[in-house]
Amino acid sequence: MQHTSTQDTLVGLFVAAGIAGLFFLSFQVSNLSSFTQKETYTVTARFENSGGLKVKSPVSAAGVKIGQVSSISFDPKTYQSVVVMQIEAQYDTLPDDTTASVFTAGLLGEQYVSLDPGGSDTFLKNNGSIDITQPAIILEKAIGQFLFKAASEEKSE
Amino acid sequence: MIQFLQNLGKSTRSSFTKLGRGTFFLLQTLSGIPSVLLRPRLLLNQLYSVGVLSFLIITISGLFVGMVLGLQGYYILSDFGAEATLGVMVAASLVRELGPVVSALLFAGRAGSALTAEIGLMKATEQLSGMEMMAVDPVKRIISPRFLAGCLSMPLLTALFSAIGVIGGQLIGSGLLGVDEGAYWSQMQASIDFQDDIINGVIKSFVFGWVTSWIALFEGYDAIPTSEGVSRATTRTVVNSAFSILGLDFILTALMFGDN
């Protein structure tokens, strides 16, 4: 009898350790604790160019992450990129003249949507849209423009 | 030449016959699972010999794999000045690939080979036919509890492997090499997704546990009942399990992580 009861204890410890490992992975390693369960509202923004933005890219205001991108699609009528964002419900005081821009974190880092609040007294509502947007800066374009400008200045001298 | 073709045909046919017997065996095992639930004591004993006895090798290997990942990752990432993403690298590679695959390989070596040898010896010493004589179904009594124990303990062992690996990576990364501890964890939490990474890792490990236990039990049950036959069956268990784990891992990875 003694033998089986220590065996039971060991099996119990093993199962408990395995489940503890799973909990550790879920809450400490993954993003489960930080995001999935929070209530959100949806805001749409149209960009001339959304660059390397992806689904799940962060949406931040003043550098703080307040939501994430939930879908990106191309509008065949206006030739714009339609970016749908989920913003946490507690941040419901964004003015409706907020500016959305696509920026890059660091020189080579991932791209994110930055929201700059305007001065309006009315707030963005669920399924609302952001009208003032600033497209992503494409590095090749910027370099091309710079070279073009430098060449034309050289010519005029 | 004709001899060669004859042999080729014979071996092809016999390998298909074996696959068919294996599938039949798997169905028999699955149909025996409900009766295992009526006798939880059998399952508990097997959880002990399959799971608890593999605990030590899994945790120690996990610790060292995590430490090696921390060390190598640091040397490579520091070339780009990206040491802060060490946590992402360690956790993503452990949770997605190394955790399920390495613990399944260790499991096949530690528990799978033991299962094959045990069942094979039972067959060689005619314990299985003895049971049949006493109207006890050996599949229900011997095979199904072991199969269920393998399927259940594999995800637990994998979770332990990955968790301890992540901690090992952190020990080396921020304890020895000076990566910021906060950056290690926060970058990891920002990039590792619960559903895409953790749940898929658990699904992978469950599939590997299933396949490894199936192969191990079938090889034992199908072994030629001599000492040489059992030794060959044990070898085949380890070799075939390794092949199936690595092959299945490729397929599962392509299915799970294909779209991002």
Strand content of chain B: under 5%
Task: Give the count of helical stretches of chain B.
Answer: 8
- Biggest beta sheet attributes of chain B: none
Overall tally of domains of chain A: 2
N-end to C-end Cα span of chain A: 99 Å
- Specify the overall morphology of chain A: elongated
End-to-end gap of chain B: 51 Å
Largest interface: A-B, 26 and 33 residues
The tally of strands of chain A reads 8
Structure characteristics:
heterodimer, A: 157 residues, alpha/beta, 8-stranded mixed β-sheet, 2 helices, B: 260 residues, 8 helices, 89% helix
What can you see in these coordinates?
The complex is a heterodimer of chains A (157) and B (260). Chain A is α/β, with parallel strands linked by helices and 157 residues long. Chain A has 2 domains: 34 residues; 104 residues, no CATH class. Helix content of chain A is 29%, strand content 32%. Chain A has 2 helices and 8 strands; from the N terminus they run αββββββββα. Chain A is elongated, with a radius of gyration of 24 Å. The N and C termini of chain A lie far apart (99 Å). The mean pLDDT of chain A is 83. Chain B has 260 residues and is mainly alpha-helical. The radius of gyration of chain B is 21 Å and the shape is elongated. At the A-B interface, helix 1 of A face helix 2, helix 5, helix 6 and helix 7 of B.
Describe the protein's topology:
The complex is a heterodimer of chains A (157) and B (260).
Chain A: H1 2-29, E1 40-47, E2 58-61, E3 64-75, E4 80-88, E5 99-104, E6 111-116, E7 128-130, E8 132-134, H2 139-156
Parallel strand pairs in A: 1-7, 2-6, 5-8
Antiparallel strand pairs in A: 1-4, 2-3, 3-4, 5-6
Chain B: H1 2-38, H2 40-79, H3 86-124, H4 127-133, H5 138-176, H6 181-191, H7 194-221, H8 227-256
Summarize the structure.
The complex is a heterodimer of chains A (157) and B (260). By secondary structure, chain A is α/β, with parallel strands linked by helices.
